[in-house]
Prior knowledge:
The chain has helices at residues 2-12, 20-38, 43-56, 58-61, 65-68, 70-73, 75-93, 95-107, 111-128, 131-148, 154-167, 176-189, 199-214, 216-220, 232-235, 258-262, 302-309, 324-327, 357-361, 396-403, 421-439, 445-458, 464-470, 473-491, 494-506, 511-526, 531-549, 553-564, 575-581, 588-613, and strands at residues 242-247, 270-276, 279-281, 295-299, 314-316, 334-341, 364-370, 373-375, 389-395, 408-411. The chain is an alpha+beta fold.
Amino acid sequence: MAQAAESLNNYIEVIPEFNISIAVVSSLIILLLGLFIWEPMPIGIIALAVPVILAVLNLWTKVSTEQALSGFSNKATVTVMAMFILSRGIQNSGAVQLLGNKLEAFTGDNQKKQVGAITTFTGIMASIINNTPVVAAFVPMVTNLARRTKVSPSKLLIPLSYASMLGGTITLLGTSTNILASQVSARLIDHPFGMFEFTKLGIIVFIVGLIYLVTIGYYLIPERIKLESDNLIRDYQMEEFLSEVKINDDSPLLGKSIGEVFKGLDQDLDIIQMSRKGERFMEPLDVKTIRAEDHLVIRGSKKTLLEFIKNKGIALLADIKINQHQLEDSIQGQKIIEVIISDNSFMTGQTINNVNFLERYDASLLAIKHGEKISYENLKKLTLKAGDVLLLLVTDTTLKRLEKNMSFIIEDDLEETNYSPSKICLALGILAAVIGLASMKIISIAIATLAGVIAMVASDLVKPKEVYEAINWEVVFLLAGLIPLGVTIEQTGTAQFIANQLLRVTGIFPPVVILGIFYYFTVLLTNVISNNATAVLMIPVAVNAAHQIGANPFAFVLAVTFAASAAFSSPIGYQTNLMIYGPGGYKFRDFIRVGAPLEIILAVIVPLFISIFWGI
């Protein structure tokens, strides 16, 4: 401890004093943190503003135009883009879906067995392909497994998300954070990550997390959604907001189209379905002419509906309770489904009206769920967020269109698929070749992953148009925008200054304790902003702190990297948590309740094993 204190005192003498450059960069960091938390616009767009600001303020940021734009050509950005496409190829081959379909036969209705199997399989998959697509592929499988075995999906979806984060720490390709951290580490200490360099630590972290989730965590996860039947209408408690009415022979609406009557209506009412002589019709209904004896299923409050039908020759069929069976029609291919807004969906931050969703997809909207809250009124004006769940009445044609769109995750019963063993082997072979070439350093990881993309397209595992759809552009923009910020933090001495301030408080402790403090501080930060943003901000600070106390800088880089993927106590800190927030019906505090103990456990485990494996 005395040696560390002496190193700290010697290093402080060369720390730059607070100056205008540090003030400008520190203010920019604080501004970005505020914007990332408030999120007035997508964080990818916010990040794109960073290179502009750095270039405009180059007198103080010391960043040239080339450096400000360096994030777009950085190996990390290229590799992450390629990994999204490789992940799509693995999904298209059927490998992920085939694995998911085997779970039910293996676990039955044993809840702990389900948690253990889901966690294990998700972690393994997330260690070799990007963890976000893994969760996107597994969410429908897990929710349908829960529905068929009468288990609350709330008990299974948090383990799914956490396992993807834990599995992502096993190899370099598991998450974009690892790839980004490797590039920053190469720049700062000339030590990029090897493909399996931290695998031994990642496996320990994964096993600890797995044990936690099937023991302590299992009892902490609440059953927010109770599945009492296979009836989504009942599960969503829609009975009070769905009514059936009949058009009388003397109605003044006879001969008018539904669009004419309901389009400009100020009242919050939507026509979900029309029945005429035993035949059912759904969207588009605007051109349908109203006739006597027509039956209409209407979404809206009873009070609003009664006000509307007054003196219009419409009879409320109060004795009829709308259920899922009544709305669905297997002959005409009409069915009720849940659709999750994915984290990179074009609908995020938009309303149903803004994007003409119902007209575009010929769907009827019944309800919207955000976490534990279900909304039944003014649905078309609600601003949508990633993880929101739309309850829709659709046709088979609409369902197929939605399934092809990466903006949505469809929670529908998965049909048996005739998987092609040759395609699965080919996709896994391409991925294995990428990993082999990169790990043996025959070619760089960026070139290896690009070669994998070409192979996926050439072998028809990924269609050319899917290449653009598969990429999560928000993550790409985030990397491209924030990488030059990391350069600025280092070049202006801001990283040294912040590290010095932190060490003035923590410098009295042994290096392993300081390492633990840096780990936990990074965890707190990543719970409120992006994992990649946290890595960019904290790695330069951690490296400078290590230099100041004479510690191993690579140990501090690893601690920050692992911590940036440990946002367990917030639904907004990691994309996969957002994706399961709505389907699980969770409350914000559920993540704190389940995730905080795991973060504390890992805050001890990770620094301890870093010190054992790499030394401090």
